[in-house]
Write a structure and sequence with these properties.
Elements: H1 4-11, H2 13-27, H3 31-35, H4 41-70, H5 86-96, H6 98-110, E1 124-126, E2 141-143, E3 149-150, H7 165-177, H8 184-191, H9 195-209, E4 222-230, E5 239-240, E6 244-245, H10 252-255, E7 257-264, E8 269-274, H11 279-289, E9 295-299, E10 315-318, H12 333-350, H13 358-370, H14 376-386
Parallel strand pairs: 4-9, 9-10
Antiparallel strand pairs: 1-2, 2-3, 4-7, 5-6, 7-8
Length: 402
């Protein structure tokens, strides 16, 4: 049986006509031969050759299509795997039922071998209700060795949280599958919780997505660096004495937040909020996240002058001042595209982000960028697993530079 694509091609009227004419020409019974018996043999032979060429072209296309369909995905050029995921099938139940949500988080954290969060022992058991025989209402576990009680929440960003685990499952799912982010107001509406609870939940999920910079591998190969300002237009400042309008747009650095980005071509991204865009600040940010063997690409900003001497690949620039945006392989278009995604997410989803919390939203956008080759289920699993071993306290809620 032919694949669906070939069946559609077979039903195509134009292709079907070419096929019939080609077969008829090979058999010597083309429409021209049937209608004009007296046509000379040279003209008939020429028509048959054209029909054979059409048939050969059609068969070649069919063979190429069969190879493309049958060939395993690992041999294709596109490495993305967007196939169905078992996690996606479990998400609806985890978002609707508390027991299913707890078991979902337990399976992702411990797999088939639960262990104690205090001492690491696997000699543990589930605590049951003495009357019903079902799991404890708090879904407690107990360790035989250290005699401590614990749950799947211990040692994660949702520890000491009163929110049901089904809300955490839904928020993780939306944060990992929404390309431009999901707002706390939307989580509030969907989960029927307060805005404070939704904001509490989303801030901790973004903290779970944050990269572990001390252990993260530095960016290698060709690394594009760029900076931008994030923020909206200033409001009307009012009239000064003498009825002269006070223009709040005079100092761009005071109105907006500076953001630096370093992008490895074909790899990961590192973005961070910086105090300013001076050479000292930007060069320190580059040294922090880029391998010394890498090659640096930037625009003609004088803040990057001299950075090439510290990297084996040197420093190449493009001159935007003369409308030069690419010179061979030298460009920083990837970095600029990453900023476009951030700004569209802030404008369309969040509308306004304060300077004190902007770094958390950058963590979320960076996580989605770095896991762009995963499907939605794999990305959700990666975020939930990254939540282990992290706690976000109220005293650590703002950016260190604020």
């Amino acid at each position: 049986m032919l694949p669906g694509s070939l069946m559609r091609a077979w039903r195509n009227r134009k292709t079907h006509t070419i096929w019939d004419r080609a077969l008829a020409g090979i058999a010597g019974s083309s429409p021209a031969a049937r209608t004009n018996k007296t046509e000379d043999s040279a003209s008939t032979t020429k028509q048959q050759l054209q029909n054979v060429k059409s048939l050969s072209l059609y068969l070649t296309q069919c063979i190429a299509l069969c190879i493309k369909i049958i060939m395993p995905s690992k041999h294709r050029k596109d490495p993305h795997n967007l196939s169905k995921s078992e996690t996606v099938k479990r998400i609806p139940a985890a978002c609707a039922d508390e027991l299913a949500a707890v078991e979902f988080f337990e399976s992702l954290r411990w797999g088939s071998e639960p262990c104690c969060t205090k001492c690491g022992s696997v000699n543990v058991y589930q605590m049951k209700d003495a009357v019903t025989g079902e799991r404890n209402k708090r879904f407690l576990w107990r360790c035989h060795d250290c005699k401590e009680q614990y749950t799947v929440r211990i040692g994660t960003v949702y520890e000491e949280s009163r929110l049901p685990m089904k809300h955490w499952a839904y928020a993780f799912w939306r944060a990992c599958t929404s390309k431009k982010g999901v707002s706390a107001l939307e989580i509030q509406r969907h989960c029927q919780i307060s805005y404070k609870s939704a904001l509490f939940l989303m801030n901790r999920i973004r903290f779970a997505m944050a990269p572990d910079l001390p252990t993260a591998e530095p960016l290698q190969g060709v690394v594009e660096v760029d900076e931008t300002y994030v923020g909206g237009k200033p409001r009307f400042q009012g009239w000064a004495k003498g009825k002269k309008w006070v223009d709040g747009r005079t100092n761009k650095a005071q109105r907006k937040t500076a953001v630096f980005a370093a992008v490895e071509r074909g790899g990961q991204i590192r973005r961070q909020v910086v105090a300013d865009v001076t050479g000292k600040t930007l060069k320190a940010a580059i040294r922090q996240c880029v391998d010394p063997r890498a090659a640096i690409m930037s625009d003609e900003n004088s803040a990057y002058t001299g950075i090439g001497e510290e990297f084996d690949g040197g420093h190449t620039t493009v001159k935007h001042r003369i409308k030069q945006y690419a010179r061979g392989t030298a460009n920083k278009n990837t970095a600029e595209s990453s900023f476009a995604l951030v700004k569209r997410g802030i404008i369309g989803t969040y509308h306004n982000v304060s300077k004190e919390y902007l770094h958390r939203y950058l963590w979320q956008f960076d996580f989605c960028w770095n896991t762009r080759k995963m499907n939605d289920g794999e990305r959700t699993i990666a975020a939930i697993k990254a939540a282990g071993g992290k706690r976000l306290m109220y005293s650590d809620a703002t950016a260190p530079h604020a």
